[in-house]
Amino acid sequence: MLKTAFVAARDRQRLGEIASVLIGFGVTKVVERLGLAQVARLAKRRTPQVDIARLSQPQRVRRAIETLGPTFVKLGQILASRPDLLTPEWTEELEKLHSQVSPIPWERIRPQLEEDLGGPASEIFAEFDTTPLAAASIAQVYRARLLTGEEVVVKVLRPGLRKTIEADLRLMGHATRIVVDEWPEFGRYQPQEQMRHLASGLYGELDLINEARNCETIAAIFADRDDIVVPKIHWEWTSERVLVQEFVHGIPPNDHARLDAAGYDKVLLAQKGTDAFLQMALIEGVFHADPHPGNMLIMPGNRIGFIDFGIIGRLSQRRRTQLLMLIGAMLKEDSDGLMAVLLDWSGSSNPDLTKLEASSQAFVARHTGASLDFGALLTDFMTMARENDLAMPTDLAILFKGLVTADGVMRQLDPGFDLFSAAGPTVRRKLASQFSIKGLTRKVEAVGAGLFGAASELPTLIHLMLVRLKQGRVTVEIELKGIEKLTRGIERAAARIAVALIVAAFATQLAPRFMDLGTPAFITVGAMVCVIGIGWLVLLGRNK
């Protein structure tokens, strides 16, 4: 249990505030299970301004989170995007979380801003509107004009925020370790992974240089496209707590009256927005993680502007390939392909394959035919994962959230828009390029290089194993699930090791000679050796 006497002394005050707020909103089970009741009694009681008896448990948690500030709001927003972890009653309530707060007066912002700018604002800006355009829990945004005449946006971190967030993250990290140790049943919620994601996101937002770099990363992706606009960063005035960037003029995609009056082609814009998002995610592996209407602007010439890059998502090449296979399986209505991708993502979990197969077939049947609601499809997909005790990898959960948000924006532009169908051509082109002769050749060359590297290491590994066997220093760890199976297991393991050593030695001796014949011959012989060895191992496995 979490013994408050041994929690970091410097965070005791914040710990008391957290416990008091949770108890005030009736979230007492969490406080009791973490052993925080005594701390809460010592803290100043925070009385909610609502009648909590009339609120459901998810509503109480959501109100408590909003009271506790940006760290908890960010965690709640992450969980709201995870229907693979939480039931609809929780995700729907947590989706109501917002980071809009009352703005801090200019008198408190000004000293920090001028300290970071290195002088009075009047020496840098010809105009500065001290009424913020937006006030969120992390930063406030102002409109200004440089002495050179350029219109800019000035983003300023809220003073004193870092200290509170760092304390929250330390306490959350400690609580996460307790949860993992004390309640293994919470393992499927991936508490440690969620904490890593939360901490990474918040520390990224606390450094506005990180946001500026994100902005330039996205700008580089669209450097050859004049229909996608990303604001320019003014690096001479940008620092950890201040971001100065170009002011982008445009109309939000949900302002239908202004869009219609300006004569924009909303169908074309929906397609362009989709192409841009897919280019970021599927082609480049770097994408805007929160493309909501406030972060997209429609500009003259049917152009689209992206702003606010506090958080971006990244996908490895392997993950992008998996995602392509998933979308390809959906497009082909292939339940077996869908199931294969899910199993690839399942990690260490052990799902019921019969149930998973039935769920995959039912999913395909539900989403076959007419125009699809892509947001509903992805939400249903993540729900299917939860019902089969599977959790999505965090990077894909971020992407799915972005896709759902983007789909909602595109539907506001074009109510008949089908992002799933619009994604089809991009997915097929990407799949074709990956599995073309050229693409496969690159993969074969990579495999050949990997085999050669493994072969070059085998003599050392085999020699080390033999030395340790002679010295009696080989340690074997065995998990005993049934003593009656132990003898047979050791016999089979010994036989397999013997065969594996023979195959490894064979491959090692042949490798240098066949490398002289060129990569194709080496790969061919190496593959034959592997197939023969695997065949022997399979036969041994059957002889129980």
From TrEMBL:
By its UniProt entry, which Pfam families does this protein fall under?
ABC1
Keyword Transmembrane helix present in the record's keywords: the answer is yes
Q: Which InterPro entries match?
A: ABC1_dom, Kinase-like_dom_sf, UbiB_kinase
Q: Where in this chain does the entry annotate a coiled-coil region?
A: none
> Which family does the record claim for this protein?
Belongs to the protein kinase superfamily. ADCK protein kinase family.
Tell me which domain of life the UniProt entry assigns to the organism this sequence originates from: Bacteria
This chain's source organism reads Methylobacterium goesingense
Task: Spell out where the chain crosses the membrane.
Answer: 517-540
Where's the ABC1 atypical kinase-like domain? 96-340
Instruction: Give a yes or no for keyword Heme in this entry.
Output: no
This chain belongs to the protein called Ubiquinone biosynthesis protein
- The residues forming the signal peptide are none
UniProt keywords, alphabetically: Membrane, Transmembrane, Transmembrane helix, Ubiquinone
